[in-house]
Amino acid sequence: GLNKKCVSLFSMKESVVTFFKDLLAIVLGIFIPFAIQGMIDRSRDRKNTRSSLELVRSELVRNIEDVSIINEFLLTEKRSAEYLLANRDSLDKCPLDSVRYHEGIILADVSFSLSQDALELLKMSSVFQNVGNNDLSMKIIRAYDCCGTIVNNVNRHISIRDTRFENSIDRQSAGEYVSRGSIDINEFIRTDYG
Question: What residues does 34 pair with on adjacent strands?
Fold first, then answer.
């Protein structure tokens, strides 16, 4: 009788161990694929985040280059205006090519914009949430805000300049300033608007 009880306990113990082995195999069979898929997803997210941040960096570098170019133009515009203003009473005595060069600068048709495509891509995707660094996210937003401010200021300057020029030309005065199809800077610069 004791042998039967031992065999019965042993087989019961064996069936409990088998049950837990089977349960562990099932749990691991479910958990391992999810864990592996999670690691793959996190790796893909990190790769996408890195790629998106590289795109933002490249765009901001191009924007800095464009700001440098427009800054050079504005400095040249200022020097041209100073040249024309300093010589406004004797422009006809200045070298014609110098007068035409400076005239072309201050009357140039200019528009300015900076790209924000990478920022829009970040906003529309989940990448911003994956950055995981709020300081970096804020720096990116501030950099683009700064770009927007620069564009607004430059375009406001250009708009004011162009509006002043347009206000100085009416049907009567247009004939006075135009010679050979272009504005005669010698006449125009002597006006209040000029």
Answer: none
Question: What value does the CA radius of gyration of the chain take, rounded to a whole number of Å?
Answer: 36
pTM of the model: 0.67
CA 136 to chain CA mean position, Å: 15
Answer whether 115's CB lies under 8 Å from 62's CB. Answer: yes
**Cβ-proximal residues to 106 (8 Å cutoff; 6+ apart), any chain:** 77, 80, 81, 84, 161
Give the model confidence (pLDDT) of 102-127 as tens digits: 888 888 888 899 999 988 888 887 77
CA distances for 193 relative to 50, 55, 110, 163, angstroms: 53, 45, 19, 10
- CA dist 71 and 63 (Å) reads 12
Encode pLDDT of 127-177 as tens digits: 766 667 778 888 888 999 999 999 999 999 999 888 877 776 654 455 555
Instruction: Look at the block and give the residue holding tokens 């837990």.
Output: 20
Both tokens assigned to 35: 């864990």
| CA distances in angstroms from 2 to 11, 12, 67, listed in the order given | 14, 15, 94
